[in-house]
Amino acid sequence: MIKKERLLKILEEVNKKGVININDIVAELEVSDMTIRRDLAELEKEGKLLRIHGGAQSIESGIPTERSNTEKQSLQTVEKEEIACLAASLVHEGETLFIGPGTTLEAFARKLTKRRIRVITNSLPIFDILKDSKSIDLILLGGEYRPITGAFVGSLTNKSLENLSFSKAFVSANGIHNNNISTYSENEGLVQQIALEKAMKKYLLLDNSKFNKFDFYDFYTLDNIDYLLTDTQTTPKQMEPFITLTCILSSENLK
Q: What function does this protein fulfil (predicted)?
């Protein structure tokens, strides 16, 4: 493929997908990593795309923005309920759980209000869901508050986590791509990274819209996750790149 055709193909892909990954383009076009990086630099210089860490972003899509907790509440609601039921079925009496921030995890927390467990969270919405439970020993981690997601983050949160251990940690993300699990905020990612490292079992809750997507900050690798919990709308094709990395469960497993 000549250079002109290669540049047109890169533009076509980035404008179609919004964001592209260098490794994917290298594999598709069968050229070197350095060639693609030079192509991206040239296209950026011409004002045709925007380079980001690990890839490029379409000018047409604008700079990615982080959706607020409120905005996410109305998205993939059926799928979140499926995943929440599946996750709740894996919780046993007497366990100590870490539950990270996110609307899927909030749906999960609503299934736990009558369980005899201990829950540690850095999410204010999850604390609010569980605070009136008579059976849950609930701990809210403090730190710097992020109003957009309702999460506490930063050095105080991280230091608190380093002194704790969990039976299970349940986290979510904005996407998985190759072996990487990513989110928008580095600070939120670091909290989840520490919590996962302190857990005996690690669970990632992800609906079908998050497969083969990535965001700004990679905070963990999929091959270090014990179980990926997803919904019944996630297709075998979506799962295929990840089935060798972790055990994938959907609510089909409850039937």
A: Repressor of the lactose catabolism operon. Galactose-6-phosphate is the inducer.
